[in-house]
């Protein structure tokens, strides 16, 4: 099993994926343990002074004006966790919670939070035991961090609340800690606050969305190439010299991917051999690299934001290298929220152009010789008519999900926290959008492969043939009379989502960008 070592200088997207999705073990470096101890000594020294220090010897948020006496401070830290664990709604996915916990541990280990080494070690132990606190859908405004989600995780460290066992059952967190020999923590000054104040939930979902979208954008380039082929279009629009004169990196990458898939095709280039020759292909085919490329460039910007956030120590107050403990606003989720919303917009447009290509494949007036709806016996058979309805419904929802969450703000905490990012909400809707995008691409793949097989007198590109053969081997059937479509569409979705389409094509094309 892979082991991820947490130090003081942040972490990587690959580490987040390894822990969140693949159960990698977590270890704390000696450097991190030393930094934790040093920062804690600073907090202990401040706690012993009579002057109030926010988060150490005061209340929180709008209640920060009250000085808390030493005998009440442990209760203060327990209370902030209990009161802030106020989430509602469905449970959040296990991988999201593991990413959330790991990223909070990353910040704790920076030595900027003042948390004791033993608390950090308990966080690692809970991750390694496969114990996943129950976190709910609603509760974060994306400012002062993902407060409610992180509070539910901190509650489990205290041995309170519910958690999911490695076998998937939900039980009291205290029982699960005891079964795995993990002692619950008694939080001290600042520690409760430090476990709650971060952008970890929205950041974890951003990192995972970027990994998924990287795979889906490659898949979309493949399906766009398959559709171009099925429509007897021209690959000349993909020539590198046409894209170097508009040097957006993503556009060039998408065009190169499509050209690699189409290499050796016997279907392309027939667009001028019809009774009414086409001068050029429709936008949804011809402009595929421009749309997918713009999305790729959006991902590159989002990845830069994620990398900066992964290198950050987000807490308030924060322990500085010179020993000061200072209040700040670094917990505000605006940088992450904006790119989460931007990605949802780009994904919606990619889904939209994919659906337009599918519709063109099914329309006998625009498909250049293909049967209506790719049906076996049109009229008796409906073919893929309703598959496109399903795809259109998914596209419509993606357009709704593209409405920015970060444009909203609802004041909270008696107007102390009077502007919030809504980054958690942006992340949650992006997760839905990413799932929908995979389904939309799967429908185009299903239609395009069937259409290519219906061009029986022409030979597809070797990469296209590899994709078709792999899809059929995965249980997705080819042309023929009407049948129960849902299982085929579900299998095609799994094929795309699990990266099998890219894996089928790359042995022929070489690695796609």
From TrEMBL:
Stated name of the protein: Histidine ammonia-lyase
PTM annotation, UniProt: Contains an active site 4-methylidene-imidazol-5-one (MIO), which is formed autocatalytically by cyclization and dehydration of residues Cys-Ser-Gly.
GO MF entries: histidine ammonia-lyase activity
Keyword Cytoplasm: yes
Positions of crosslink type 5-imidazolinone (Ala-Gly): 143-145
Record-stated family: Belongs to the PAL/histidase family.
Main location: cytoplasm
Keywords: Cytoplasm, Histidine metabolism, Lyase
EC numbers: 4.3.1.3
Modified residues (2,3-didehydroalanine (Ser)): 144
Biochemical pathway: Amino-acid degradation; L-histidine degradation into L-glutamate; N-formimidoyl-L-glutamate from L-histidine: step 1/3
Compartments, as annotated in UniProt: Cytoplasm
Record organism: Streptomyces xantholiticus
Keyword Lyase annotated: yes
Organism domain of life: Bacteria
Catalysed conversion reaction: L-histidine = trans-urocanate + NH4(+)
């Amino acid at each position: 099993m892979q082991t991820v070592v947490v130090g003081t200088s942040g972490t990587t997207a690959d580490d987040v994926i390894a822990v969140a999705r693949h159960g990698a073990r977590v270890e704390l470096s000696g450097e991190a343990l030393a930094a934790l101890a040093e920062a804690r000594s600073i907090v202990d020294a401040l706690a012993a002074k009579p002057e109030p220090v926010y988060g150490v010897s005061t209340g929180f948020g709008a209640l920060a004006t009250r000085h808390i006496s030493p005998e009440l401070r442990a209760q203060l830290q327990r209370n902030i966790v209990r009161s802030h664990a106020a989430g509602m709604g469905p449970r959040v996915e296990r991988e999201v919670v593991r990413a959330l916990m790991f990223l909070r541990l990353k910040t704790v280990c920076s030595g900027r939070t003042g948390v004791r080494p033993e608390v950090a070690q308990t966080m690692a132990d809970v991750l390694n035991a496969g114990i996943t606190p129950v976190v709910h859908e609603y509760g974060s405004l994306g400012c002062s961090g993902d407060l409610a989600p992180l509070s539910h995780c901190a509650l489990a460290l205290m041995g309170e609340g519910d958690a999911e066992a490695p076998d998937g059952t939900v039980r009291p967190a205290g029982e699960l800690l005891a079964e795995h020999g993990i002692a619950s923590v008694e939080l001290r000054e600042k520690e409760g606050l430090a476990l709650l104040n971060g952008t970890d939930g929205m950041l974890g979902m951003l990192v995972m969305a970027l990994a998924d979208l990287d795979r889906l954008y490659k898949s979309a380039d493949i399906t766009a190439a398959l559709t171009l082929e099925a429509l007897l279009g021209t690959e000349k629009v993909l020539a590198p010299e046409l894209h170097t004169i508009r040097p957006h990196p993503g556009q060039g990458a998408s065009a190169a991917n499509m050209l690699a898939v189409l290499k050796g095709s016997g279907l392309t280039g027939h667009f001028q051999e019809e009774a009414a020759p086409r001068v050029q292909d429709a936008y949804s085919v011809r402009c595929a690299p421009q749309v997918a490329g713009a999305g790729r460039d959006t991902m590159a910007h989002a990845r830069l934001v994620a990398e900066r956030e992964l290198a950050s120590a987000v807490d308030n107050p924060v322990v500085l290298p010179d020993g000061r403990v200072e209040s700040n606003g670094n917990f505000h989720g605006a940088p992450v929220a904006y790119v989460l919303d931007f990605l949802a917009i780009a994904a919606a447009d990619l889904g939209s152009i994919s659906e337009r290509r599918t519709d063109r494949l099914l329309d006998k007036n625009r498909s250049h010789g293909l049967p209506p709806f790719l049906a076996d016996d049109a009229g008796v058979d409906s073919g893929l008519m309703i598959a496109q309805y399903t795809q259109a419904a998914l596209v419509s929802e993606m357009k709704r999900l593209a409405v920015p969450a970060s444009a909203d703000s609802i004041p909270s905490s008696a107007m102390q926290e009077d502007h919030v990012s809504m980054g958690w909400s942006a992340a949650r809707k992006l997760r839905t959008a990413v799932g929908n995008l995979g389904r939309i691409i799967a429908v185009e793949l299903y239609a395009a492969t069937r259409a290519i097989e219906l061009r029986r007198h022409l030979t597809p590109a070797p990469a296209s043939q590899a994709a078709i053969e792999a899809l059929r081997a995965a249980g997705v059937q080819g042309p023929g009379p009407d049948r129960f479509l849902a299982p085929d569409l579900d299998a095609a979705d799994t094929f795309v989502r699990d990266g099998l389409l890219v894996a089928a094509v790359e042995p022929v094309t070489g690695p796609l960008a």
